[in-house]
Design goal:
three-stranded antiparallel β-sheet, Glutaredoxin, alpha+beta, single chain, 5 helices, five-stranded mixed β-sheet, globular
Length: about 190
C-alpha cells in the first residue's frame, strides 16, 4: 500500500469548473449545478483503494448529515481504468450503491479535473465555501487502515462546522494520505 500525501492546494483557490458523467444517475453534471447552499466538499476517491474503503462508512455518514445542512458532497474518481479495471464507471455505480453514497460519483476519464485540483491521492478532500473558494483541504481525520485510531471525520467535520457557523477555519491543516491517483501512461 503506497502512501501518498495531498498536494495541499492553496487556500482561497477558486474551484475549477468541470463537467463530468455521474456513474449513478447516468447524467452529465456541471459543478455550478451541484454547489451546496453553504459549501461544497469535493473528494477524490476510487473503488479499490484500501484508504478509501477504510473511510467509506464515515464519508457516507457525514454526507447524509451535512447535506441536510446545505453542504453538498461530490465524489470523483480519476483513476486509469485500463490498468485498474476495478475502478471502471459501471463498477463505480455498484460501489456508490454498496457504500450508501447520497452524492454524485463522477468519472474523470481524461484526468483533467484531478490535475486542475492538483489532486494526488485517494482519498483527497477539498471544502469550498458557498462562493467556491477553498477553505479546507487535507485529511478526514487521523485514522488509517490498521493504525487503530477511531474513524471520526474530526478534521473535515471541524472545518465544515466552522464554515456553517461563520467562524475562521484554522489554516493549519494536515494532508490526506492514501493511494496515489493512478495516472494514465505513468
Amino acid at each position: 500500500m503506497a502512501r501518498t500525501e495531498s498536494n495541499m492546494l492553496a487556500l482561497g483557490t477558486q474551484a475549477p469548473e468541470f463537467r463530468l458523467p455521474d456513474t449513478v444517475s447516468g447524467t452529465t453534471m456541471h459543478l455550478s449545478e451541484m454547489v451546496g447552499k453553504n459549501g461544497t466538499v469535493i473528494l477524490f476517491i476510487c473503488n479499490h483503494c484500501p484508504f478509501v474503503i477504510h473511510v467509506n462508512p464515515e464519508i457516507s455518514k457525514m454526507a447524509k448529515e451535512y447535506q441536510s445542512k446545505g453542504i453538498q458532497f461530490i465524489g470523483i474518481s480519476s483513476n486509469d481504468v485500463v490498468n485498474y479495471p476495478q475502478d471502471r464507471p459501471e463498477l463505480m455505480r455498484v460501489k456508490a450503491i454498496e457504500a450508501g453514497y447520497t452524492f454524485p460519483y463522477l468519472y474523470d476519464e481524461t484526468q483533467e479535473v484531478a490535475k486542475a485540483y492538483d489532486a494526488a491521492c485517494t482519498p483527497d478532500f477539498y471544502l469550498f465555501d458557498k462562493n467556491l473558494k477553498l477553505v479546507y483541504r487535507g485529511q478526514l481525520d487521523d485514522s488509517r487502515p490498521g493504525n487503530g485510531k477511531e474513524l471520526t471525520g474530526k478534521d473535515l467535520r471541524q472545518a465544515m462546522d466552522a464554515l456553517l457557523q461563520n467562524k475562521p477555519i484554522s489554516p493549519d491543516q494536515k494532508p490526506s494520505i492514501g493511494c496515489n491517483i493512478k495516472w494514465i501512461n505513468s
